[in-house]
Write a structure and sequence with these properties.
By secondary structure, the protein is of the alpha/beta class. The protein has 18 helices and 22 strands. The mean pLDDT is about 90.
Length: about 500
């Protein structure tokens, strides 16, 4: 795809951005062509999100130029960019929770009654329903945003971006928190945008999305552009090598160590409306994957085991001892650890320092005596974990909201490495994490398994389950439909059992 044959819509020339003493973007030159799907790839902290926030008016550049259709532009706010035809779907959902779906879609652009400043609510809802129908989504536009699941809220934000009639649509990790049906709806929408000659700038850590959708890819590393490539000029190995600056020899490192005795024993576990009569075992040193489509019951099982769901029935034993779990504190005390799927809203204390985030769950058992915290030991152990996980940070007194998504995830995993847990439950352990950080997280999971921890992983990334699991339990409509060994598990078999009704 030669640039001379396609009109340049957006161009970055020598773009630079500095935060404090840190240069996060340096001399970035990228052209975006009319109607192309252009992916930005790189490790967490490579500068991808900073680029799109600078394009969209969230950040002001400290050097260089942004040109739109050949003319230099300067956006002081996201509204400036939006009025110029640049619509951005940020990784963090931008919403007003108490307002309806329709109101969120057309916020600031509401249809008015003739000759009045009053909002035409009938027209508002009709317009919102039309967009939902075009996207193939079945979301009630009169619902409040706070009543929707994360995936539904993300789809509403995508609908808002589409409704703005932009010439450039920027998407930052749009498939995070989406199920397979919603991802397919998103891809249909992207095809429709390209047919209308709308340029799509796309950030994703899911390499399969990049390979299947991108016309061109720009690789970033440490705030610098490495290269821009046509889709036929790279393969997975070469692209990953450019992203991380080294050859990634093995995405899923082999696990050493033997599988031991049963640690977690689940009998006839039930939660009305979610799953019924689930029974399985997890051994010391074993990694068991949970697979299933949306509403299969798989994630409900993980949450119920950690005490996040009340009114469960059945029996759960850990180390031969029957557990009495009514809440997460009971789980932690009985040596069950849990990494939630949404690190920002369910896991991290974003405005507290890293020491606090690491040690909050083990203060009483590991770092205090008679209510007095041993600050020296607390700091020493967190320094060790930070080093082991290769967390990129300015120091232990940094806050998680200052870190990239991959480093945030490492901090959350590090929390459960400071004490001796028997069972580790992980939901989407590498969501929104770059390939280099993924490999490091996988290595740490293997290290925990080697120490005898029983590990449960729920993931919507099929290759992650196949690469990391000793066994895969497949769920469908609240039932456990299959237990597949590593040798017999394939994507086709997993989907076969996930579709059982």
């Amino acid at each position: 795809m030669g640039e001379q044959k396609r009109e340049v819509v957006l161009e970055l020339k020598g773009l630079k951005k500095v935060f404090g003493e840190t240069t996060v973007l340096e001399d970035i030159d990228i052209t975006f062509l009319k109607g192309e799907f252009h992916a930005l790839v790189g490790e967490n902290g490579a500068g991808k999100s900073t680029i799109i926030k600078t394009i969209s008016g969230v950040h002001k550049p400290d050097g260089g130029q942004i040109l739109l259709y050949g003319k230099k532009v300067k956006f002081n706010t996201p509204n400036d960019a939006q009025r110029a035809g640049i619509s951005t779907l940020f990784q963090e959902i931008q919403e007003i929770p108490e307002m309806t779906v329709a109101e969120n879609i057309f916020l600031g652009r509401e249809p008015r009654r003739s000759g009045s400043v009053l909002i035409n609510k009938k027209q508002l809802n009709q317009d919102a329903e039309r967009i939902m129908e075009e996207l193939g989504l079945s979301i009630d536009t009169t619902q409040r945003m706070c009543e929707l699941p994360v995936s539904g809220r993300k789809m509403v934000e995508i609908a808002r971006a589409v409704s703005q009639q932009a010439s450039v649509v920027i998407m930052d990790e749009p498939t995070a928190n989406l199920n397979a049906e919603e991802i397919n709806a998103l891809f249909r929408m992207i095809d429709a945008l390209k047919e209308k000659k709308i340029t799509v700038i796309y950030i994703s850590h899911r390499m399969n999305e990049v390979f299947s959708l991108a016309d061109r890819v720009t690789v970033l590393r440490d705030g610098k552009k490495i290269d821009t490539l046509d889709s036929n000029a790279y393969d997975e190995k070469s692209l990953i090598s450019m992203m991380i600056g080294r050859e990634l020899t093995e995405m899923y490192p082999k696990r050493q160590g033997e599988i031991g005795e049963v640690v977690l024993d689940v009998h006839n576990f039930s939660l009305d409306g979610f799953f019924q009569d689930i029974s399985f075992q997890v051994h010391a040193g074993e990694v068991v994957g949970l697979a299933g489509l949306d509403s299969s019951g798989a994630t409900a099982v993980t949450k119920a085991l950690f005490g996040l769901c009340s009114k469960t029935r059945g029996e759960v034993f850990c180390g031969g001892r029957r557990l009495n779990i009514k809440n997460p504190l009971d789980s932690i005390r009985q040596k069950l650890a849990y990494l939630p799927e949404d690190r920002k809203t369910q896991g991290l204390f974003l405005n507290q320092n890293l020491i606090f985030n690491y040690t909050i769950s083990s203060l009483w058992t590991r770092f205090s005596k008679m209510g007095v915290i041993n600050n020296r030991e607390e700091k020493e152990r967190t320094e060790e974990v930070t080093k082991a996980l290769k967390v990129k940070t300015k120091g232990l007194y940094s806050r998680p909201n200052e870190l990239s998504g991959g480093n945030q995830q490492k901090v959350l995993l590090g929390r459960w490495m400071l004490d001796d847990y028997k069972v580790l439950i992980l939901e989407e352990p590498t969501r929104g994490v770059d390939v280099g950080a993924k490999s490091e997280i996988y290595s740490q999971i293997n290290q925990l398994a080697k120490k005898g921890v029983a590990v449960i992983i729920y993931s919507t990334e099929m290759m992650e389950l196949l690469g990391m699991s000793d066994r895969i339990l497949v769920f469908s409509t609240g039932q456990l439909t299959a237990s597949l060994s590593k040798e017999e598990a394939t994507q086709e078999k997993i989907m076969q059992y996930a579709l059982v009704r």
